[in-house]
Amino acid sequence: MTTAADILQSKPDATVHSVTPETSMFQAITLMAEKNIGALLVAEGETIRGIVSERDYARKIILAGRSSRETPVRDVMTSPVMYVGPATSTQECMALMTGKRLRHLPVMENGKLLGMISIGDLVKDIISEQSFMIEQLQHYISGRPA
Length: 146
Description:
- The model has no long low-confidence stretch (mean pLDDT 92).
- The protein has one domain (4-142): CBS-domain, CATH 3.10.580.10.
- It has five helices and five strands; from the N terminus they run αβαββααββα.
- The chain has helices at residues 4-10, 25-35, 54-62, 90-100, 119-142, and strands at residues 18-19, 39-44, 47-53, 104-109, 112-118.
- Strand 1, helix 2 (25-35) and strand 2 (39-44) form a beta-alpha-beta unit.
- Helix 4 crosses helix 5 (119-142).
- Strands 1-2-3 form a three-stranded mixed β-sheet. A two-stranded antiparallel sheet has the order 4-5.
């Protein structure tokens, strides 16, 4: 069974980008565009205060008619942040993300951030597992060794 730690190890770039609560939403969305990511952790030092995403920008800035240059991240971030431990299975992560409508999930251990997984990371892993299983079944049915 694949775990959150396995997903983090398989990622080509495990960098987790963050901003402070005082960062403007404009600066945050600019960073997301530059890094081609959909969410940023909001942190003060080692303490995670929240998470802000493209969805927050669309719903809490654009649709609310607010100024992204004048609105600090703290006013639109999601807090507290839901997270999982490294031993959490991909199935448990998927159930949590689906049930809570999350797209990004930090992985933490003993209060320390290990990385962040996205719904895309989980889907990629599930597809890979299913492809492997299909291949093994095809070998079994055809009588060829795997």
